[in-house]
Amino acid sequence: MTVNTQPVTESPDDPRAFGLPLVDAHSLPAELRTLVSRVHDLVDAVANTEVDTDTLAETAATVEGLTDRLNVARRQIGAMVRRELGDGTTMVGTITNIVEGETNPAAPQLFLDRTDEGLRAEVTLNTIYQGPPGLVHGGWIAAMLDQAVGSVSAVETSPGLTANLEIDYRRPTPLFTPLEITSWVERVEGRKVFVAGRIRAHGQVTAEATALMIRVEADG
Ligand SMILES: CCCCCCCCCCCC(=O)SCCNC(=O)CCNC(=O)[C@H](O)C(C)(C)COP(=O)(O)OP(=O)(O)OC[C@H]1O[C@@H](n2cnc3c(N)ncnc32)[C@H](O)[C@@H]1OP(=O)(O)O
């Protein structure tokens, strides 16, 4: 397991001040990233397979053995990861975050990067995230937008929690299609950060969000 040995700082943005382990994204072993990717593919294969029952039973036994093997050393709940964005700023989040966690095979691993307006990511979703036939589940659309607006609030102000999230579903959001997700801060009033985000497919808006984030620690 990767352990960050840098000294704990007193910054409220540093999770080690709250007793949570923190690792740098670039220090995660390539073997772990490969395993996450393979298991992501496995989830998709399981969700869609029509193989015979013997193969299903055999595969289930193999997977159970692999699960036991990995469970001998587990991370602490709340373990955090620090990742560097394109412009050099750093962002901290839980390492198993369901939308962008580096070690979570169920996550689409949205990689939000900084732009002049806020944050932007591109992601293509498969049937793991399916709601209506061929379309992204509405709850996942909300989850991705929640992450995008929460992250832009954290990066541009300081970390907080979503108090309110409103989604307008404008058009169906397709699977197997590059989606562009953007988010930005509209205004800040003390601990309240008013944020917004959008998903586009083929350049057309499929969903829009507005949200209120409440900063856990104000800057002062
Ligand atoms: C290192 C980490 C990395 C973080 C990296 C970031 C990525 C995270 C992305 C995912 C985000 C999530 O999923 S977060 C998980 C989902 N959200 C949650 O679990 C939050 C649950 N709710 C809460 O814990 C609480 O309600 C809080 C913390 C949001 C607010 O509680 P509080 O701190 O006591 O503050 P409170 O006084 O109630 O409210 C402050 C001000 O906001 C207003 N306010 C509060 N709620 C609302 C509301 N729903 N709609 C309108 N206004 C509201 C109040 O009227 C008040 O205004 P005024 O009187 O001052 O004018």
UniProtKB/TrEMBL annotation:
Enzyme Commission number: 3.1.2.2
Protein name: Acyl-coenzyme A thioesterase THEM4
Catalytic activity, reaction form: octanoyl-CoA + H2O = octanoate + CoA + H(+); (5Z,8Z,11Z,14Z)-eicosatetraenoyl-CoA + H2O = (5Z,8Z,11Z,14Z)-eicosatetraenoate + CoA + H(+); hexadecanoyl-CoA + H2O = hexadecanoate + CoA + H(+); decanoyl-CoA + H2O = decanoate + CoA + H(+)
Pfam family membership, one: 4HBT
Subcellular location(s) of the protein: Cell projection, Ruffle membrane; Cytoplasm; Membrane
Keywords: Apoptosis, Cell membrane, Cell projection, Cytoplasm, Fatty acid metabolism, Hydrolase, Lipid metabolism, Membrane, Transit peptide
Organism: Nocardiopsis terrae
Keyword Chaperone belongs to the record: no
InterPro entries associated with the record: HotDog_dom_sf (IPR029069), THEM4/THEM5_acyl-CoA_thioest (IPR052365), Thioestr_dom (IPR006683)
